[in-house]
Amino acid sequence: MASKNFMSSSLLFLMALLLSWSSISSAARYLEEEAAPKEEYPELPKPELPHGAAVPEFPKVPELPHPEVPELPKVPELPHPKVPELPKVPELPKPELPEHPAVPELPKPELPSLPKVELPPLPKPEFHFPEPEAKP
Question: Is residue 7 situated within a structural domain?
Answer without folding.
Answer: yes
